Amino acid sequence: MLFNSFEFLLFFPLVAIVYFILSPKYRWLFLLVASYYFYMNWQPIYAILIFTSTVVTYLCALKIDSTPVKSRKKAYLTTSLIINLGILFLFKYYNFFNDSIFGLLTDWGIRMTLPNFDLLLPVGISFYTFQAVGYTIDVYRGDIKSEKHFGIYALFVSFFPQLVAGPIERAVNLLPQFKETKKIDYAQAAQGIKLMIWGYFMKIVVADRLAIYVNSVYGIPEYHSSITLFIATIFFAFQIYCDFAGYSNIAIGCAKIMGFDLMTNFRRPYFAQSCAEFWSRWHISLSTWFKDYVYIPLGGNRVGTTKNYRNILITFVISGLWHGANWTFVIWGGLNGLYQVLFKILKISPKRKTENTEFNFIYIGNLILTFVLISFSWIFFRANTFTDALVIIERMFTVAGNLFIGDKSSFAYSVFAIIVLMLKEGYDEFFPNGNLFFKSTKKSVRFISYSLVIILILLLGVFDGGQFIYFQF
Amino acid sequence: MEGSLFISSSNLMKKFILNCVIGIIIVFVLDFAVGESLEYFYFKQTSGFQYRTTYSMEKTNEDILVFGSSRANHHYKPSVFKKKLNSSFYNTGRDGNFIFYQTAVLKSILKRYKPKLILYDFTGEFNINQTDYDRLSSLLPYYKNHSEIRNIVNLRSQYEPVKNFSRIYPYNSTIGNIAIGNININGLRTKDKNGYVPLYGEWKEPLKMRDIIKFEKTDKNKINVFKDFLSLCKENGIAVMVIVSPVYYTYDKDYSLELCEEICNEYKIPFFNFTKNQDFLESPYLFDDVSHLNDKGATLFSEKVADLVRED
Questions:
Q1: Which among A130, A334, A461, B255 has most CB atoms closer than 10 A?
Q2: Class of B46-135+148-155+192-311 per CATH?
Q3: To the nearest whole angstrom, how far is the Cα of A417 from the nearest Cα of chain B?
Q4: At what angle do helices B2-42 and A443-460 cross, to 10 degrees?
């Protein structure tokens, strides 16, 4: 079930109302059933994979906790990792590695083949697998105790607001919340509704609108001029942000209405002044996951300079691969890792903006440089193939020509949507204590502001067939 | 203690529900006001594709009507038909709209009058393609007042009747076109001639072979709606010809065309396929792109069709 489907608009209020009406004793069970129903609306059979991941991590964590022997703890952790990452590999990466390795061997004259599997990628598999694996590692490290209640643990893995596209939650934050008796909290519920409304605006008005232009340009880059490819790339930077941050906002908003606090996943990343800062504002739940479970175990920055650079690159390449089984994603990840390393080598690490930061040319320059570098990397992320990415880059700097507009109205809506987005984001960034529109002290102004956002969604939203990009990861 | 907690919780719940109701009322009022304005200006347009749909559904009274997508719209030139057949003529073709749209428009027309002849330009595919359903959004402005098209528009989703409670929803993403249609600035729109919009480009690339379009799964809705179209014409005693207009590519097999011909035979409707006509395949200068004739091509093609009508 998609958040931007009519079904979800019926499903969620019903779930929230029943959740609060039910006796607290049975709420976890109700949420668990609702979460599986939510997932099974897409491809029922793949619920087995979530269940398998749940059972394996639950049992392994119990065993890790109960055995005092270090080597056994490690064996249980390894079992959990092999099974979970094995499933992920089989469904997401097998064909990619099969094609890549045997393709390479064929190039060297060695003819060997293994059949590819014709498997549909289970929605959200990377998200729930990482959440479940993170839990097992936390138990192994002794950061948390294993969860004894299987139902509560199953709910932790499958909680519907964040099941298919995050935020990737940590057990230490989310698990205890399922045991609390939630009462309706007016402020929290109101905040949840506001987040959902803005999330829908980001997804339906901005991301899906920009997708129309981006898809038509990136679909046949060999026919487009430099200016068109530049505009399409900038549009994609906003599309991917609004697609994913929009989803996160809706997810966090849903959870908030029911009294749950999920972690913040995006903090206006395009206001970052360096690539390092960008990654502290973009997909925070994944970035911190990689930091805690990959980068730091590799040695993080507590090792020599060269090894630190290696650790950064490895982490980003894996992060790229996490996003998709394609060399374009690997290069995207590697490129972002390279940015970090280069910035470190060149000692360019502007301090994060604080309220007292002067808004001057250096600030604007850093902001633009970061945006340009990040947008450049998005070319690899969005291009259908590596060859297409190269064609785009080449044409960006060599092929003059007119700007392709496509449908004029749609193009105008795209520009308008970005302006509205940036006005709000800019205001939130630079005036965190401001009191205009959404933050007005007057309730009537806040009401009208959010109502106008809903009207904009109805007026300019794209209601047809918009999937969330991150579902494929 | 528990009692006071319950009271406070229940008060908060009341406050929350009250505020939700206030929010819903504000949205409802705004939706009504904006939606009504959009409706007023939508139907006040005097040019453009939205106006042509309104004209097709609500004002046509011509003897001959053309139905189809962009290929119909750019291929059938009214002046040729008027001259050769001495009949009034209107081209209802609309870019990117296929079988569903055409049948809905016909249903609306038949509520008012019966044209003498319908030329159906077949372009659509009988494959399952979600886009064809999404494009039914072009009929949403007529959903309220044209009950006859609702069962077709409802193919978009089962929730369409509920969604149409919103007054803005039918006009989603149309505000730009409505504005241009009302401002009427010269040059912003190509003027149509009885629905026909000429193209003036000239194709210069060589003739190419097109890949066989994979026929994965037949969309039964499309077949049924296409059959509905033919049945409606027959029931109302309207002469109909199904025509596939020229293209500038070659192909081995097109399953949709074969199926279309089969259905026409079943209904004893004349079917003419111009996609392999050498006059066009040897003349790239008659095309604007591989699927669309330019004005010169449209003139030649219209003459050929008018001759066929006369013969028939």
A1: A461
A2: alpha beta
A3: 12
A4: 50
